Amino acid sequence: MKMILAQKLEMSHIFDEAGNFIPVTLLWAIPNIVTQVKTVEKDGYAKLQVGSGEAKKLSKPMIGHLKKSKSKAKNLKEIEGEDGKTYEVGDEIDLSIFAEGELVNVQGISKGKGFAGTIKRHNFHTGPKTHGSHNYRAPGSIGAAFPQHVFKGQKLPGRMGAQKATVKNLKIAKVLKDENLFLVRGAVPGPKKGMILVTAKAVKEIPNTK
Hints:
The protein has helices spanning 40-43, 60-65, 118-122, and strands at 3-15, 21-28, 32-38, 47-52, 75-79, 92-93, 103-109, 114-116, 158-160, 164-176, 181-185, 195-200.
């Protein structure tokens, strides 16, 4: 399966041949360097560990880990290799594996909102503002009287955002190979300069019922 680590730059827009306005997200596909090849025989599963970007300073263990790949990558991620292709430590995965019009899934860490109440976090309604009501932004009843404890999974205030989020079936609107940029149609989770994992959409085989 085709995968690459990219950095989210910003949102912008383009116009297609018919003059339609298309919102896009600019992703910078920093060339991914294979830093470790994991195999079923040695590690129990088969994946590639790739690194992107360049760290200003690395710890001694990380220097030793990246010595064979001759890189100073600061972002490491395990991905699946492209089907039918053999990779070795030091190989480079670039933007050429994707094409315009291809459907992809993007995964990133959503923006952190901090501690939020039920109205912002779960879209609760506010209480009445008139007639002396003091239940304007309170969550209201959170359980029955008999069990005498709060059930798990209740929608309550708490930390909002900063979680892994995946957006599926986004179309690659444009590929700029010279600048290592590609434009994905629509919004992508995460803040600017956040790391995004772009995966080619797996096409499911339709079973033959005849």
